[in-house]
Amino acid sequence: MSQGPIGIVHLAERAPQLTGAEMVAALVPPPQFRDATFDTYRADPAFPSQQAAKDTLMAFSGVGAPAAKGGFFKRAKRGPEIKPGVYLDGGFGVGKTHLLAAVYHALPARRKYFGSFIEYTALVGAMGYKNTVDLFRGADLLCIDEFELDDPGDTMVMTRLLGELVASGTRLAATSNTPPNALGEGRFAAQDFLREIHAMAASFETLRIDGTDYRQRAVDGHAVSLSAAEYDAATADAAASGLASDDDFDALVAHLARVHPSRYIRLIEGLGQVGLRDVAAFTDQSAALRFVAFIDRVYDAQLPIRATGLTLDRVFPDEMLGGGYRKKYLRAISRLVASTLS
Length: 342
Prior knowledge:
Layout: E1 7-9, H1 20-25, H2 48-60, H3 72-78, E2 85-90, H4 96-106, E3 112-116, H5 117-127, H6 129-136, E4 141-145, H7 152-167, E5 171-176, H8 194-201, E6 204-209, H9 228-239, E7 243-245, E8 247-248, H10 249-256, H11 264-267, E9 271-279, H12 285-300, E10 305-309, H13 318-321, H14 326-341
Parallel strand pairs: 1-7, 2-5, 2-6, 3-4, 4-5, 7-9, 8-9, 9-10
Helix pairs in contact: 5-6, 6-7, 7-8, 12-14
C-alpha cells in the first residue's frame, strides 16, 4: 500500500491555480459535513429554536418533520406564502452549516450546489456574470454558507444573481451571522443598497438559531501557543506521516494577498497540519480579512494548527473587534481555538 507524500512544505512558496470548471466541481459540502443529516444534528433542548429550525428545514427539504401533537403540517397551512429560500441566522458553532449540509443531502434534486459566499463571488469573477447565471439556471438548489456582504460590488452581484435564479425556479438555502435585511451594516454605505438588500431578503424565510458555540463548550476560550521546541517537535511528528506546513506568520499573511481567496483551498491541499511561527496581532484590516478567509478553509478541511507567538485568538485587536467585521472575526476566533486544540 503506497503512502502519500510526507515532509514539510511552505505555503508562502505555493502558487495554486484553479479553473472555473474546478471551482464548480468543488461546490459540495466540506469534508466534515459530507455525511451530515438531520438525524445527526443534535438540537440542544435548552434552545428550542434549534429543533424548530430543524423541523422547518426538514419540511423545506421534503422529508417531513417528526409528528407532534397538533401536527407540524397543520402549522404549515398557516403560512400565506412558501418562500423559495430559507436563511439560517445565528451565532457561531450552533450547527448552521450542519443543517445547511443536511438540506443539501436530503433534498431530492438533479442539480444542486453547496459553497461558501466567497466561492460563488469568485466564480462570477472567474467565469463572468452571464456565464455564471447560465451555469446555475435550472439548478434545483443553491446552498450558500456564511453569507456576508463586504462591499457594494458583492451586494449588486449576489442580489442580481439570486434574483435571476429564484425567478427561474431555483430554491435557496443560506447561513449567516447577520439577518438578510442587515447585511452590509457598518461596512459600507448600506443605505445606498437597501432596495437590493431588501429585495433579496424577501426571497428568504429567516430562521433564528440560538445556542452555545459547540467548539468552545469545553474549552477555556484561548488558542494554544507552543514553545519553539514544542512547535518543532509537533511539526516533525506530523511531517513523518504526511505533509505539514511551516511558515512565518507574517510571510504567510503577506502571501495571502497574492493568492485569490477562492484558491486558498488549493493552498492547503494535501496537508495534514498547518504550522505558524511567531504569530502577531494584525494592524491591517485587509490582511486580517484575508486571514479569516484562509482560516475558514483550514477549518473546513479539519486541519489542526500548531503555532508559536501570540495566541491566535488574540490576533484581532480591539479596534477591529469593535468594527463592522466583528462577527467575522469572532467566528474566526472560535475556529482558531478549536483548530489549535485538535
